[in-house]
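Customer escalation, tier 2.

The customer says the design service returned an amino acid string that "doesn't look like it belongs to this structure." They asked us to rerun it and document both sides in this ticket. The original structure tokens are below, unchanged.
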């Protein structure tokens, strides 16, 4: 014993406690406790009761303070206290326990079992491959009796059958049937174990994706789903062979694999990723695939304990997606890039609340000024979002995100409602202004978009000339003819439509003949260069000439200097919008600005 009174007795006790904790953890991991009965276990207990000719048989699991029966014959309860339960002794000793007569046993004479009429008990341990005893396969009788060695061996066989069943059920759902590799659930579980055993240590996850979604769906179309299955299988085997059998590889999705490595030299890990990638590329099935298969491998650090398993998988996948964009197809996780995606995700999730809040969204107005007269007949309404925690978020960041989601509909509806209310207020004050609104491509997918817009304007008692809509070239072209019908409806009713960001859409100029629009807004990337670049001048000059020849009204966006303004005036541009005249302003500031202009 040392000076603190710590002796071998106490050390032994602590070891025992540690072992019991590990045993309970193993038991909980199997998710068996408090689950409904299952025929696969009941079959074995029935057989045991019949074979031994005893009224009671059970598969009994030893929890912290109770015996819980996964399966039982001849007992009514689901559980009994662990204290003085014979099965508890099986768990403690990890050995067969036989009590020929409970009433003769000093330990069990006064136990609950004995008091309920049980005389005989035999239990064989239910042992995992790691050596933890979960409980017992037991048979009980109301009379004292003996049990032969042969019978004990049979009871042990039955316990082994129960364990095989438990382990099979556990493996089921943890092995990917295509590759035979452990799957995502197993990855999550193993990572949790690692968290427990090596908290705070550094590991890296290598996430391998043989094809991206677009390539996968292309292959599916060309070759059918069986081909993808085969690719998943072959690539998994190829990777495992390259890694060596000792390295655990997980199959976490179609053609997606992940494995964990130790180490801290990122450039070495990157070399390893390149080596694996090379090995994949040299597989016959990949070399001979009917579409170009480009595997990508991302390397992501995880500090065990800092993040949950699901998040580790997410960062590793994110690293892999980024790696896909690189020439080498392999890359190390970038915090900055990931932070951007997280922010995007946050913006997307928070936007609905913004729509419902009263103070997060607002419209600002940027004047459009007529060249020649220098009169301002209207403004473009631009959306602003003040996020309660992130502050001002630019529409350049959030609009493209929202546009790909169903939220694009309520977003535009909000803009239309707010702008129409504002324009109505101005008209009521005698300011006959025209406000142009930005509309997303997907809004044209809403079958009643045009009708609703016209109805709203009519309800407000505004003339159609009070509202204009802007659509980008890309928007017009991504939607096809059906969407154009909406525009035809609007145009037929007399509403003016503008092609926004003109010149940036890479689309054919031929469409200008057909499109139901009257206004072209030349993108500010062309206008910006007018002061200095002769190329921009040539481009803008030709755009203006062509647009005018086709009868368009032309607006130049992003006019920042007096010189640009004068140059555009000389070319005959109709209207300009830009910082040279005014930045986008709140409605009241715009109205004040207008008053000073007049
Ligand atoms: P846009 O429709 O082309 O709007 C013009 C953008 O150019 C505005 O950016 C405006 O502030 C900026 N701008 C105007 N004059 C100048 C200038 O002289 N110099 C420079 N550097 N920039 C100038 P903003 O407000 O950040 O909006 C960006 C884009 O977001 C808009 O481009 C539009 O595509 C989109 N957006 C804004 N509000 C809405 C909306 O309510 N609905 C939809 N669907 N999109 C919107
Ligand atoms: Mg616009
Ligand atoms: Mg624009």
């Amino acid at each position: 014993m040392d000076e603190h009174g710590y002796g071998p007795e106490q050390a032994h006790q602590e070891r025992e406690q540690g072992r019991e904790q590990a045993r309970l953890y193993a038991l909980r991991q199997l998710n068996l406790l408090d689950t409904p009965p299952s025929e696969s276990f009941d079959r074995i207990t029935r057989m045991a009761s019949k074979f031994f000719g005893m009224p009671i048989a059970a598969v009994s699991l030893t929890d912290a303070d109770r015996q819980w029966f996964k399966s039982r014959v001849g007992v009514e309860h689901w559980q009994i206290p662990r204290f003085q339960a014979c099965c508890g002794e099986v768990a403690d000793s990890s050995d067969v326990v036989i009590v020929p007569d409970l009433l003769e046993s000093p330990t069990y004479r006064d136990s609950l079992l004995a008091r309920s009429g049980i005389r005989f008990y035999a239990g064989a341990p239910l042992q995992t491959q790691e050596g933890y005893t979960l409980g017992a396969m037991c048979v009980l009788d109301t009379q004292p009796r003996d049990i032969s060695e042969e019978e004990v061996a049979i009871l042990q066989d039955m316990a082994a059958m129960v364990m095989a069943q438990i382990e099979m059920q556990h493996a089921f759902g943890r092995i990917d049937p295509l590759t035979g590799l452990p799957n995502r659930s197993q990855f999550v579980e193993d990572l949790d174990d690692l968290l427990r055993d090596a908290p705070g240590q550094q590991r890296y996850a290598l996430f391998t994706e043989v094809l991206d979604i677009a390539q996968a769906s292309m292959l599916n179309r060309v070759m059918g789903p069986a081909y993808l299955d085969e690719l998943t299988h072959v690539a998994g085997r190829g990777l495992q062979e390259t890694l060596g059998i000792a390295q655990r590889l997980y199959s976490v999705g179609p053609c997606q694999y992940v494995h964990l490595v130790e180490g801290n030299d990122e450039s070495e890990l990157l070399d390893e990723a390149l080596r694996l990638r090379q090995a994949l590329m040299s597989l016959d099935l990949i070399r001979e695939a009917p579409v170009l298969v480009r595997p990508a491998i991302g390397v992501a650090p995880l500090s065990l304990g800092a993040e949950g398993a699901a998040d580790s998988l997410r960062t590793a996948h994110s690293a892999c997606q980024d790696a896909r964009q690189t020439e080498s197809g392999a890359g190390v996780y970038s915090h900055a890039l990931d932070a951007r995606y997280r922010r995007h995700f946050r913006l997307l999730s928070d936007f609905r609340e913004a729509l419902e809040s009263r103070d997060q969204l607002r419209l600002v107005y940027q004047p459009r000024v007529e060249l020649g007269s220098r009169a301002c007949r209207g403004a473009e309404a631009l959306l602003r979002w003040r996020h309660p925690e992130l502050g001002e978020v630019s529409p350049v960041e959030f609009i493209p995100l929202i546009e790909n989601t169903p939220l694009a509909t309520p977003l535009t509806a909000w803009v239309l409602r707010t702008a129409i209310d504002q324009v109505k207020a101005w008209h009521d004050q005698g300011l006959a202004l025209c406000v142009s609104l930005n509309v997303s491509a997907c809004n044209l997918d809403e079958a009643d978009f045009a009708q609703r817009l016209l109805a709203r304007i009519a309800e407000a008692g505004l003339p159609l000339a009070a509202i204009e809509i802007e659509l980008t070239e890309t928007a017009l072209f991504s939607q096809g003819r059906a969407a154009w019908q909406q525009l035809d409806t609007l145009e037929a009713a007399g509403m003016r439509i503008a092609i926004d960001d003109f010149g940036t859409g890479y689309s054919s100029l031929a469409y200008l003949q057909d499109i139901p629009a009257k206004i072209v807004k030349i993108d500010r990337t062309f206008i910006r260069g007018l002061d200095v670049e002769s190329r921009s001048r040539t481009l803008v000059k030709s755009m203006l000439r062509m647009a005018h020849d086709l009868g368009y009204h032309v607006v130049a966006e992003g006019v920042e200097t007096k010189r640009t303004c004068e140059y555009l005036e000389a070319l005959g541009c109709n209207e300009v919008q830009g910082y040279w005249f005014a930045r986008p302003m709140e409605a009241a500031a715009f109205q004040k600005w207008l008053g000073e202009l007049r």
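Tier 2 assessment: The sequence is consistent with the input. The mean pLDDT is 91. The first strand starts at residue 56 and ends at 62. Sent an explanation to the customer and offered a walkthrough call.
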